[in-house]
Every structure is written in structure tokens, then in C-alpha cells.
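Deliverable D4.2, example record:
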Amino acid sequence: MANKTTSEKNKPARKTLRPNEYYNPKTKRYEYHYKDCFGKERVISSYRLEMTDQLPKGKKSTKSLREKEAEINAYLENSIDIDGAKLTLLEVVDRYLNSLYNRKKLAHNTKVGYNVTVNTLKQYKLGYMEIGKIRPEHCEEWLADMKKKYRGSSIQTQISLIKRTFE
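Output generated by the structure prediction step:
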């Protein structure tokens, strides 16, 4: 039986890679190449191919490449802009209002109402959360807190603007 050289010992065990998966020997990381919803080439990488793989010594624990791939494919199937998912709710509301103001001439009082809604949203953690991380339980928590401070019509205005923003 032949002895393995030190360079062969440091190489990861040979694994079956799926299409668009690669092993980069320079960085010793697995890579996944894909195109985002705008057709831009993207690459994600990880030290581990699968969740059960051992992490190299001294490296920070992150998701495996296959876990990251699954997330990205879910985003792509739902036509979600991956970078857009990192925007906060306030940033998305601001973009929506700017596009609305550019499309239609709105009454002064309508704009003032929208500004009040945005300023109210700034008082809550929900406004500063990334869109991709907002879950129903966050919205329920926000709504419960809103009910303590505001009447139904004010809350309904907030909900209406947020719904239209998400659409």
C-alpha cells in the first residue's frame, strides 16, 4: 500500500459535485456558480459541501454550500431579488413612495399622511428589519404594539401602505 503525501492528506475527500458546483483548490472552498434574476453571474462559497462535512480548523462555522444553494434556488424560483431581500422595510417603503410620487400627482394631504406613516414605522424595529428576514410573527408583534398606541384607522393606514409596498 502506497503512503499518501502531505498534499493528498490535505485535499478533501472526493465528492460528487452537482452541476455548477466546483471545488477551488486555491481557497479550499466549494463554489456554486449561478445567474441571478437579472442575468448577472454570481458565486457563493463555503468550506463545507454538505451540512455533515467537517469544518477546517480555525474557520468560522457557516452554512454548507448545499444549504446556501437551496436558499438561493428558493429565491430564484419565487423571482426574489437576492440583494433586494437585504433592504430594510423603510428603504422599500421609501422606494415605493418615490415611484408612486413619480407616477401620479398626489394631494398634499395624502403625502403628509404617508410621511406620518413612515415616521411611525421608524419608531419600530420592524421598519429596520431586512425584507428577507421579516416573518409573520414579527408583523404580529408590531401589530400588537400598534394596537396599544393607535386607533384602528391609523393602524389600517399603516397596514395598507406596507401591503402595497410588498406587492
